[in-house]
Write a structure and sequence with these properties.
The protein is α/β, with parallel strands linked by helices and 197 residues long. It has 5 helices and 8 strands, in the order H-E-H-E-H-E-E-E-E-H-E-E-H. The protein folds into 2 domains: 77 residues, ATPase, nucleotide binding domain (Nucleotidyltransferase, domain 5); 88 residues, Nucleotidyltransferase, domain 5, CATH 3.30.420.
Length: 197
């Protein structure tokens, strides 16, 4: 998606509702991937989710995209710790330490981090590593995983079950947008924000 490109996301949501034999008015809540990831993609997804929530007066729930991806490995990994990571650009990876319960439920064990591949090798030594699909990865990865809404029942409810504030919630981008980095570098100051705390 982007300027001048055809919108596929909203029609996909409409098709999903039609396939389920439901209407937007029958929704009881909306779940949105919370990142980390592409600034533009996350903004588009969050805007669509917020629009659905605003139009239907249902709660909005945000869940880490890395947790949704980690849950993809629930049937092949034993209970215990693992490290899930994804491409963060600029030679870095987004990294989240997770743990799997005996029933395969995944929960976060750390805050989101950014590190180089070399740092990741040291950080994840001895733990299974889960690389998010389509990310460039070292040859020794344990599993390639992909975030999917179908994995939501396997993410610990404590990591996503509280509704977020529609007017305050923003996805976790993991880093500043490239345009903001360039603006701040050229102006020697932080980009002014019009968000009221």
């Amino acid at each position: 998606m982007g300027a001048g490109r055809e919108d596929h996301l909203f029609p996909a949501v409409q098709a999903l509702l039609a396939e389920a034999g439901a209407t937007a008015g029958e929704l009881t809540g909306v779940v949105c991937g919370a990142g980390p990831g592409s600034f533009t993609s996350l903004r588009i997804a969050a805007s669509l989710a917020k629009g659905l929530v605003d139009g239907t007066s249902v709660p909005l729930f945000a869940v880490s995209s890395l947790l949704l991806a980690a849950a993809d490995a629930r049937e092949v990994l034993p209970a215990g710790p693992a490290v899930v990571h994804a491409d963060a650009l600029r030679g870095e990876r987004y990294v989240l330490d997770v743990s799997f319960d005996a029933d395969g439920c995944v929960r976060p064990q750390s805050a989101l981090q950014r590190m180089t591949l070399e740092q990741l090798e040291h950080h994840a030594a001895g733990s299974p590593r889960l690389a998010v699909l389509s990310s460039p990865t070292p040859d020794r990865e344990t599993r390639i995983v992909s975030p999917s809404s179908a994995n939501l029942p396997h993410v610990a409810a404590s990591a996503w079950s509280g509704a977020v504030s529609l007017d305050r919630w923003e996805p976790e981008y993991g880093r500043l947008a490239e345009a903001q980095v360039k603006w701040e570098a050229s102006h020697g100051a932080p980009l002014p924000s019009h968000v009221v705390p």
